[in-house]
Amino acid sequence: MKKILVCILTACCLMGLIGCSNSEKKAERVIGYSALYDENLINEACNVVEREFAKKFKGCTLKELRYDDEVENRFADEIMEYATDEDKELIVLLSTFDTDKKGGDGSLNSNATYTDWQWRLVRTEDKKSWELVDWGY
Length: 137
Prior knowledge:
The chain has four helices and five strands. It is of the alpha+beta class and 137 residues long.
């Protein structure tokens, strides 16, 4: 009886491991220096992107999310445009992700890697969280 129970438990554990796909793994986060945001704020924005990606990009695997001074410099004008309005803050994250043979939902190229895909988020009015407002190239 004990052997059967051990076999069943072992099989369940193995099935659970096999069932994990790459899309369920967290993306690598590259967070370098930022003059505008601390690491916690950047990580909060990354969390929002990861949740949205999991919902809207079925069949795709998020590999990397990046925010650093290069991103800040690249989008400085757009970020500063928001900074002039003291009630708004903008952050732009860049990502790399892979698509499956169907191209995700069919709107992307199949079996492709997308790099520097942009995610734009603004701080909510209460400054408690980030809200995703746009994505793409």
